[in-house]
Each structure stands twice: as C-alpha cells, then as structure tokens.
Amino acid sequence: MFDGWCRYFEHDAATTGTKMRFSVYLPPQHEGWQVPVLYWLSGLTCTEENFMIKAGAQRYAAEHGVMLVVPDTSPRNTGIPGEDTRYDMGSGAGFYLNATNEPWSKHYQMYDYVADELPKIIEEQFNARPDAASIFGHSMGGHGALVLSLRNPGKYRSVSAFSPICAPTQVAWGQQAFKNYLGEDTSTWSQYDAVALLEKAENPLPMLVDQGMDDEFLKEGLRVDLLEEVCQRRGHQLNLRMRPKYDHSYYFVASFIGEHISYHAGHLTQGGSEGV
Amino acid sequence: MFDGWCRYFEHDAATTGTKMRFSVYLPPQHEGWQVPVLYWLSGLTCTEENFMIKAGAQRYAAEHGVMLVVPDTSPRNTGIPGEDTRYDMGSGAGFYLNATNEPWSKHYQMYDYVADELPKIIEEQFNARPDAASIFGHSMGGHGALVLSLRNPGKYRSVSAFSPICAPTQVAWGQQAFKNYLGEDTSTWSQYDAVALLEKAENPLPMLVDQGMDDEFLKEGLRVDLLEEVCQRRGHQLNLRMRPKYDHSYYFVASFIGEHISYHAGHLTQGGSEGV
Predict the structure, then answer these.
(1) Which member of A16, A44, A247, B94 lies 3.0 to 4.6 Å from B74 by CB, making a disulfide possible if both were Cys?
(2) Is A267 designated active site?
(3) Does ipTM top 0.90?
(4) Looking at the domain that runs over A5-268, which CATH code has it been given?
C-alpha cells in the first residue's frame, strides 16, 4: 500500500501464553532507514485487521514515514468457558489490562503484551527506531492508549484517542469487565482508569481526543465529560474536539485519522533517524 | 465522513424486479450546490459496502466536491436455485449485463440498472449535476465501467479501472457466467466485452487503468495484455500503469484511488455548478 507494505503476523506470545496476532504498515521509508512507530489499539470486537482495512491510515503513515503497529484486542482460543459469548468480555475485549482473577488471569495479560512484549518484537525485527514511539486508539483502545501513556512516562512521545472509554470503573461495561478480570476488590481497578490516573498524575503527556457528538455510547459508556473535568481541575493539557454529527464508527475515525497521524508524526520525527 | 455523509439505501428496482441497494458519499459541497457524480462498480463477491469501507475514497471525494455512488453487484434473494452457491455466478456476480437466459433473465438486469435506473434516481433525489457523471470500478466492476462507457458515448465524461476483467469472453470465469446469463449463442456476448467493443469503437473515451503486477488473477482472469494490444492496434488512448508488487485487493485500490478521483474530478468539475 502506498509503496509500503501492509502485513499480518502471528506469533507465540510469552505474556499471554497464546498465539497473538498483529498487523503492521511499513512505510516506504523503512527500506534502509529506521522509522518511528505509532501503536494503534482497537476497540471492542476488533481484530488486528479492522483498522488496517477501515481507517485509511496508511496514506498518512506513508507521507510521514511512520510505521503503524496494530495488535489484536485479546488472546483467542484460550479454552476459557464463555470466552466467545459476549462482545464486551473475553475474545475481542481484553481491555488492555493484566487480569488477576481466574479463569482470565492465565492468558489475559494484554497490558504487558502491548507495553513490553510487542514493542520488543517491533524494535528487534522491524527496523524501528527504539527512541520514537507513540500510541493512539479507539473506544476500548482509546482507554488503552491513555492508560498506557499515563502509566509509562517516557515510553511514548505522544498520545491521542478517538471516543475513548475514559472512566471504565464508572460505567457498566467497564465495571462488568473489571469485576471479571480483576475481581471484586475495586481498589485495584483504578490503575486501568484514565480519569482515576489523571487524578494523581503529574505532568502527563498532552492528550488529543476526538469525540463524535452523535456517538451512541457517549453518555453511558465513554464519559468524555469526566475526562474533561479532571483535566480542567488538575491543569492537564487536553485538546478535546467534539465533532457534531459524527458517530462511533470507523467512518468517524477515518475522517480525522490524518490529523492524528500528523500530530504524532510531529513528535515522532524529531531527532535523527539512523541509516541501517 | 470528512464533513459529508456516507449513506446506504435500499429501494424497489424496476429493472431487476427486486430490492436493490446502493451507497452514496455526499461531499460537504452538496449542501446547496449540485455536485458531479462518480459511479463505482465493485468486483465479484462485493456489496455496496466494500468500497465505502475499504477504499479510503471519501477523503478525495470531499476534497474535489464529487459525489460517489456505489451499487450492489447483483440482485439478491431472487429465489433462483443456486444463486448463492458460487462466488462468480448469481449473488455478488451480476457482471453488469442484461441476462437473456432463464432463469437469470427475470432479475439479472444490472446493465439497465446501472446505466439508466440508478442515475435517474441519483439525479432526481440527490441534487446531482445531470451533465457531469463519470464511472470507474474494480475487477468485474472495471469490466462494467469500461463496457458502460464504450456503449454509451456522451453519458460519462471519463472512465477508469483497477485490475479490470478486460476480455470476459476469452477467460474461464467470464465464459462460464456469460453462458449462464446469455446462453450458448456466443454472438451476443461481445457487447459485454471491452476488448471486443474496442475492436470496433470509434473515438472511445481515454482509459486510465491501474494493474497490480502481483495480482493473482492477472494472467488467467483479467488479461490486460489484450486491452493493451487492441488499444495499440486501433489507436485508442490507454494510460496503463503496471504496478510492481501490488495484488488484486482493496489495499491496491486504496493506494491509487486518490489519483483516479483526481483524474475524474478534472473532467467532472469543468463547466458551472448551479446553486439550488
């Protein structure tokens, strides 16, 4: 695509103890040069494929010379009873956390997979710049991107989100998932809640967030109002763009993906890239 | 999307005697102004949805102020025995022709649907410029676009194709489909074969064609070499771009869709648009 390569991979993941899949877009600049990496985290029900097919991101990644990396949203085929029965639990719904509760804890270690295992593979095997990574995502993946950036200062140069689940501990689908993955003790939940983390954060990365105003999940499931409130109160930098008439779909993501990639490229392409 | 609207419709079609579906992208300029129309014809197995999801075309249509119209690739649910059993016959495989053979002839009238019925609806109900239409497509839809433009001089301002089935009467999937749709008398087949039509055409529209060189259907199913040969011999204008390393997929289409839409926009936006 666009003189680069869109490729799909599967590998044995140590963190999850399962096969894991991810997709990459290698921009034309990757031939002979280390390229910066932009991680995309997808939403509920998605695989590593949806973003690559629907977001129209490759054109912008090619323009800016940025590599895209898109993990699947959960382990699959773990044998856990009921893993495929709900759209918001189990397969396609890993919530980018490390489960501590049985039966999920054995495989559902998406936080470690995305924070550590996957970047290591990308840096070692794909000619990626080890000093230049950013992260963004959609819905559950917007939650993941915000949480990963808040808990790993210095790991990412920039963060952004489309329609993120901002406060999973305060909304039904998050509470239901966290209870299953993390157990009844709610004191452990806040480490995976962007609004809760921002309550205590010092100097978090500025956040770029786009939110459709006709998004059917806005009021009950996403709660960007809580994100805005904590950022205003604590003085955190949030560039929140409320988009009239847009919904929760990839049509919305596609409409503004170019602006997000430009934003990240502005941070990622500072500093020299080494020829290899 | 991109400040315009991506919309899906279903209606009772007179030509096919069935419900037919199509999608449109209305660019932001459609509010208050008549916009030119660019018809996209999709390939085998597609519905009206694939292009809208996968091609990344809306961004360019918004930039140029061009409306996109994408019909489904066949009637559906006709009750014809076996209509859903093959990927290259029946549902998803209308081949943009008027079937004359039983049992297909009653419903499979895609040529008339795309050439006449659909444009009438678009012009009457979508604030489209009646004097500015162009057409393009992919694979079976590239065949459709070339055939429709060749048989309807003056109807379209420009035509282009990705990986078109150039000579369906000379390749297996075309012969199989035409035998079923048109009957054993092969003399009627050439009216739906771009290479055969170009043999006799006088002053056809210039053709812009992109073809991936790693396309798995190139040698057996598409035969762009025959298109090139007849155009060279007859002196028809063909801008054929052979693209190394690209395959037959929408990843390929997405990579060059912007160039095609710019090409059509150059023809479509000549002449004044009227405020309404």
Answers:
(1) B94
(2) no
(3) no
(4) 3.40.50.1820
